[in-house]
Write a structure and sequence with these properties.
By secondary structure, this protein is α/β, with parallel strands linked by helices. The protein has 12 helices and 19 strands. A 7-stranded mixed β-sheet has the order 6-5-14-15-16-13-17, sandwiched between helices. Strand 1, helix 1 and strand 2 form a beta-alpha-beta unit. The protein binds flavin-adenine dinucleotide (FAD).
Length: about 400
């Protein structure tokens, strides 16, 4: 099998598939499928370590999923213990007694992740780009910059610009966003506006666009800094359109507000949200991670990419065991998986979060510590206590009734 793309979704797919065959997946139904793991070839067009434009905040649930198959991705990280939100309706910060996740530099995290894949004997070829494929009766011929490779199937884990997706004729997708970021020093305004340096901050005050600003602690070359950015949905349901200020001018405004100079070029990239009923597979070819689509509300995609890999690895193990590469069941398997349920909920929430109910929603997130605590547990990959959910629901009803 060929996996095109060595980011979090490609690495996780290879590792969870490997785990299903070697029997180290504790909860997996495919445990110990057989003594002969399939031959997996992972290719990536980049030479690692490589840059990936990303703020690098990873929910603890992703590290927990990897730990369950004995994988630990070690790299410089900032531990995160809280979530903060500032809106036109108020402000709330909630901290957790334990770390809920971490912020990494993708250059370092992705290189360390790929090493974990290599360490398990998976063949990895960097500097090799996927170009196209041709289906044959008994397999698929994958064209790459290093020549043709014959395989049983192909996994497209090649991110937002996915060439595999294009070759499948699936187009760009129905929900996409622009995200822009820059790393800065800590400033006086941070001391005034933030409570602690281990909190992920989301700023929803600007209602001119469907999106938010963020400021996350980060570590760059050993130095403590802040990654600041703007996420803006540019195309999606309910008139989330390209009208309104561009992300660049929004980030310039934010830096000016904080009294910070623009230091170096901004890093800007597109993001794709998973839309309802979009195809994610055809015979012998399937998509994972941002090639398929990630969270359209916040643009969170690293934990999702890793959980895509978990669902895909287990699914592929069953396909290999049966010799069935129609991949007819991938969309259904994905929809029922943890990441699928999460993404479905978020894409249905999208028009409400940034649509006509925005002020009510802002009031809720800024006034409900129970909702924030439920979010902390979820982000961390912990069981969300029922009492917090019930309190959050009661807060939601209160806001809807105008109390
Ligand atoms: C500005 C910005 C900030 C973000 N911040 C966060 C954040 O804080 N937290 C979070 O969870 N998410 C964040 N995201 C989203 C996150 O970066 C992505 O969703 C995530 O990286 C998706 O993982 P992936 O493995 O699917 O794809 P990618 O990480 O994009 O990996 C795809 C890989 O495929 C390779 N590739 C591409 N084309 C080919 C080809 N033709 N042949 C072979 N290889 C190919 C690439 O080199 C790359 O290594 C952010 C995104 C942006 C743009």
């Amino acid at each position: 099998m060929v996996i095109a793309g060595g980011g979090p979704s490609g690495c996780a797919t290879a590792l969870f598939l490997w785990a299903a065959f070697s029997g180290v997946s504790p909860g997996g139904t495919t445990r110990g499928i057989g003594p002969h793991p399939p031959r997996i070839l992972l290719i990536d067009k980049a030479a690692f370590p490589r840059e990936k434009i990303c703020a690098g905040a990873i929910g603890g649930r992703a590290d927990k999923a990897l730990a369950a198959i004995g994988v630990e991705v070690r790299c410089p990280s900032v531990e995160v213990r809280g979530l903060g939100v500032v809106t036109s309706e108020g402000r709330l910060v909630e901290k957790h007694p334990r770390p809920i996740g971490r912020v990494v530099r993708r250059r370092e995290f992705d290189a360390a992740f790929l090493e974990q894949v290599r360490a398990r004997g998976v063949e990895v070829k960097t500097g090799v780009a996927f170009h196209g494929f041709e289906r044959r009766r008994d397999g698929i011929v994958v064209q790459t910059s290093a020549g043709a490779i014959t395989a049983k199937c192909l996994v497209g884990a090649d991110g937002v610009g996915s060439r595999v997706r294009r070759e499948l004729g699936l187009g760009r997708g129905n929900i996409y966003a622009q995200a822009i970021e820059t790393d800065t020093v800590w400033c006086d305004a941070d001391a005034r506006e933030r409570d602690d340096d281990d909190v992920l901050w989301f700023d929803l005050r600007d209602r001119r666009y469907p999106g938010y600003g963020w400021s996350f602690p980060t570590v760059l070359g050993g130095e403590s800094m802040v990654c600041r950015g703007i996420y803006r949905v540019t195309h999606g349901p309910c008139a989330l359109s390209e009208q309104g200020p561009d992300v660049s001018s929004l980030l310039v405004e934010e830096l000016a507000r904080l009294g910070l100079a623009k230091d170096g070029p901004f890093k800007r990239f597109a993001e794709r949200g998973l839309a309802a009923h979009e195809a994610t597979a055809q015979a012998r070819v399937m998509l994972v991670g941002e090639a398929a689509g990630i969270d359209p509300v916040l643009g969170e995609g690293i934990a999702q990419a890793i959980l895509y890999g978990r669902a895909a690895g287990r699914f592929l193990a069953k396909c290999l065991a049966r010799g069935d590469f129609s991949f007819a069941g991938w969309s259904r398997t994905l929809a029922r998986s943890r990441v699928g349920v999460d993404l479905t909920a978020r894409r249905f929430a999208l028009p409400h979060v940034y649509g006509p109910h925005r002020s009510k929603l802002e009031r809720l997130v800024a006034s409900s510590p129970a909702l924030a605590r439920a979010g902390l547990h979820y982000f961390a990959g912990e069981h969300v206590p029922r009492v917090e959910l019930l309190r959050a629901m009661a807060d939601g009803v209160g806001v809807m009734m105008g109390r």
